[in-house]
Specification:
The chain contains 20 helices and 33 strands. It is of the alpha+beta class. The strands form 8 sheets. An 8-stranded mixed sheet has the order 16-20-21-28-25-24-22-23. A 5-stranded mixed sheet has the order 2-1-5-3-4, sandwiched between helices. Strands 6, 7, 8, 12 and 13 form a 5-stranded antiparallel sheet that branches. It binds zinc ion (ZN) (2 copies). One zinc ion (ZN) binds next to strand 21.
Length: 645
């Protein structure tokens, strides 16, 4: 008999050699139909692999990444099997599961190509094979056996992969007539794959090396139910509609210029307004919460980054240092603001009474990203962080954490991010050498984070082993309007930089002590955050964030002078407004400006001039009647106050 321990801590004895699937069936047949893979003593396994010693067991349902991974990875095999039967002699590179779906890199052979128009036939073959309920069987083989098999098939790609593997670790999986080199895990059979969609074909160099052969990469996705695939396809369309790159172009928010350089965003006036509104809003909030705003240069001496340790990290993988012509000094484009902030801390003396010192900066940093990785505003080479550092005494850590949690929750509320999760990352208790800082400090910091989160009634998951080497952290994940997760908000304890920069404060005992540093960002970067806002709101911004709050539409040229008067009043009242004085029909002006998603349209004709009023139309809600200009000013101010209070 062997003992199986479940995630809730309960344990049960089973006969030696039982499989996860059999255990699931014994619990309930319903459960067995819903699980796709299992984690056995920390390793992800096939459900049908026999367990032959005491083990911990977690069964994975669809919601778990591990289930989707096994499902999509098995689907990649299914596709490969279909390809082999449709394209005899085809050779295979790698076929992993990805975040959404899977792909396989294939070489159809000389003179043969696979294009989008072939996908339907491959899909149909996959469906036919899936319905045959082909069982995935695992076989462990020697390196020689594996090499012989793939050499006999003439598959130089698999042969190359196998030649790099260690003997004794090689497994093959077979379903139907198709055998693949693979670590697993897979589904028990092809039967659960009920809905299949091959989405695209692309070129991909073998092993990402542009000197080697270009293979054909076929992407696809599968689900256990047709309804799930239908929903996914609707989601994909919706995501396209919300794509911030398209909306950014249409609404003239930002642009990229090859002359300026790849991945370097140019904020156009309207996008810049949104960005500035975020900065103004957060600055006001931060000042109220005891932060001091600081400003630092965009470059720093390499010595600074040698002290911080960032030189090691970014030296080869990021922008290369620049030198001064005469002194030969070397500078790096700033990859992080933290080292500069440590030196701001060091610029003055600190006593225990004046801590914590909360320092904030909208600091622009520069990091190299491969050109292929760049994506709109979400992956760029220059971005501005809403960065802040708290320098505090160890006994203040919990209180500071609570303050930051409060701040994050407040910002989420203002921005209507109501669906979020929080994760506390602790160190791996079995591998303490990986981390710097004393045991005592770590234990205290971890307890402080857990206590702060619970005092703030934050629902958290706690994950061991995910902390940075320099301290534990708390991260927030926000779900957007179409269910995608974005990491926003991170709070991180740091024992490393205070040590490296020899930060001190004078304690009540008149001795020097080491402060603790907390890094925190809420938006992360303004670039990425604006992208998230655009996609979350489908390009429609709340009033306080909108670039222009109103546009004035005179019915004819006769009223242009009054329109200019109104414009001045509104702009002087901090309400960014435009005039549309084109000699177009009023109906066309209304339509054009509604398309631009300007929140308020103010129509001006004879009656409005006589009464000193404007006729108000609200985006999406139509006519609001006419009101005095100062009434409109009050309306806007109170609406904005409501949004950001
Ligand atoms: Zn596989
Ligand atoms: Zn930092």
């Amino acid at each position: 008999m062997i003992k199986i321990t479940f995630p809730d801590g309960s344990a049960k004895e089973y006969k030696n050699g039982i499989t996860s699937l059999e255990i699931a069936e014994q619990i309930s047949p319903g459960l067995a139909a819903e699980v796709y893979s299992a984690t056995v003593s920390g390793e992800i396994w096939d459900l049908t692999r026999p367990i032959s010693s005491d083990a911990t067991l977690k069964l994975h349902k669809w919601e778990d990444e591990q289930a989707k991974h096994a499902f999509w990875h098995s689907s990649a095999h299914l596709m490969a099997g279909a390809l082999e039967s449709l394209y005899p002699g085809i050779k295979f590179g790698i076929g992993p599961a990805i975040e959404m779906g899977f792909y396989y890199d294939v070489d159809p052979g000389d003179g043969k190509i696979i294009t989008d128009s072939d996908l339907k036939a491959i899909e149909d073959k996959m469906k036919e094979m899936a319905s045959e309920n082909l069982v995935f069987t695992r076989r462990e083989v020697t390196k020689k056996e594996a090499l012989d098999l793939f050499k006999s098939k003439g598959d130089e790609y698999k042969t190359e992969l196998i030649s790099e593997l260690e003997d004794g670790t090689i497994s093959l999986y077979t379903h139907g007539n198709f055998t693949d080199l693979c670590r697993g895990p897979h589904l028990p059979s092809t039967e659960p794959v009920k809905a299949i969609k091959l989405t695209s074909v692309a070129g991909a160099y073998w092993r990402g090396d542009e000197k080697r052969r270009m293979l054909t990469r076929i992407y696809g996705i599968t689900f256990p139910k047709q309804k799930m695939l239908d929903e996914y396809l609707v989601f994909v369309e919706e995501a396209k509609r919300r794509d911030h790159r398209r909306i950014g172009r249409e609404q003239e928010l930002f642009a990229f210029s090859p002359k300026v350089g790849m991945g370097l965003p140019l904020w156009l006036p309207r996008g810049s307004d949104i960005r500035q509104n975020l900065i103004d809003f957060l600055t006001t909030v931060l000042r109220k919460r005891g932060y001091r705003i600081v400003t630092t240069p965009h470059i720093g001496n390499v010595e600074l980054y040698k002290t911080s340790g960032h030189f090691e990290k970014y030296r080869t993988s990021s922008f290369q240092p620049i030198s001064t012509p005469q002194e030969g000094e070397q500078f790096m484009l700033k990859p992080m603001n933290c080292p500069h902030h440590c030196e701001i801390y060091n610029a003055t003396q600190h006593s225990y009474k004046e801590l914590p010192f909360r320092m904030a900066e909208f600091g622009t940093v520069y990091r190299y990203e491969q050109s292929g990785e760049l994506h709109g505003l979400t992956r760029v080479r220059s971005f501005t962080q809403d960065d802040a550092h708290h320098f505090c005494r160890p006994d203040q850590l919990r209180e500071e954490f609570k303050r930051i949690i409060d701040l994050v929750l407040y910002i989420f509320k203002v921005l209507n991010f109501n669906d979020f999760t929080a994760q506390i990352s602790l160190r791996d208790p079995d591998d303490k050498e990986k981390y710097i800082g004393s045991d005592e400090n770590w234990e205290k910091a971890e307890q402080d984070i857990i206590a702060a989160a619970s005092e703030k009634k934050l629902q958290t998951t706690v994950v061991k082993g995910e902390a940075a080497f320099y301290g534990p952290k708390l991260d927030f994940m926000v779900k957007d309007a179409i269910g995608r997760n974005w990491q926003l908000g991170t709070i991180q304890v740091d024992y490393n930089l205070p040590e490296r920069f020899d930060l001190t404060y004078i304690g009540s005992d008149n001795q020097k002590h080491r402060p603790v540093m907390i890094h925190r960002a809420i938006f992360g970067s303004l670039e990425r955050f604006v992208a998230v806002l655009i996609e979350n709101n489908a390009g429609k911004f709340p009033l306080w964030l909108a670039p222009e709050k109103a546009v004035i539409l005179p019915i004819s040229e006769k009223y242009n002078e009054y329109a200019v008067n109104v414009l001045e009043i509104l702009n002087n009242s901090d309400i960014c407004t435009l005039i549309d004085d084109r000699s177009e029909k009023i109906g066309k002006k209304i339509r054009d400006n509604e398309l631009k998603r300007i929140p308020y349209l103010l129509i001006i004709g004879e009656k409005e001039v006589l009464n000193g009023t404007v006729s108000v139309r609200k985006q999406g809600e139509g006519d609001q009647g006419s009101m005095k200009v100062d009434e409109f000013v009050n309306l806007i101010h109170s609406e904005i106050n409501k949004e950001i209070s």
